[in-house]
Each structure stands twice: as C-alpha cells, then as structure tokens.
Amino acid sequence: MSMRLVFNSDGFRELLNSPEVEQLVLEHAQEIANRANEASGLDSFAAHSVKAGTRYIAFAGTTDEASAQAESEDKVLSQAVY
Distance between CA 71 and CA 40 in Å, rounded? Predict the structure, then answer.
C-alpha cells in the first residue's frame, strides 16, 4: 500500500507564524538563559523572540557587562546550550 503526502505550504506558514510557536521557541530560549543565570549566580541573561521572515526565532543572550564577562571568560551561556 502506498501513501501520498502533500505538503501544505499555507498550513506550515500559518503554523510557523502562530503565537503558540513563538511561545514555544521563547520558552526554550528562556530555559537556556535560566541555566546560564543559575550557573553564573547572575540574573542578567535573558531571552527574546523576533519574527524573522516567515517564522519566529528566539535568542538567549547577555544584558549587561557582568553577563557578557561571564560568557567571555567562563562560557556560561555557551555551556547552558545542550
């Protein structure tokens, strides 16, 4: 028995642009920021999301000199990504 799958571009576009997907990617980025904050003893790693073309993406990053230094010297944020 064979089955044919049809790619629904409009459906995928709608899904990738949904608030639920934005929330999902932001939650994952926030988990990374939280792990970096916990490892460093700081509270200055943060996450944010943006719409990039046809989908939402999220980032975890530094917000001040202390968190930038923790990443630069100890790779706190890099190690929080796993």
Answer: 9
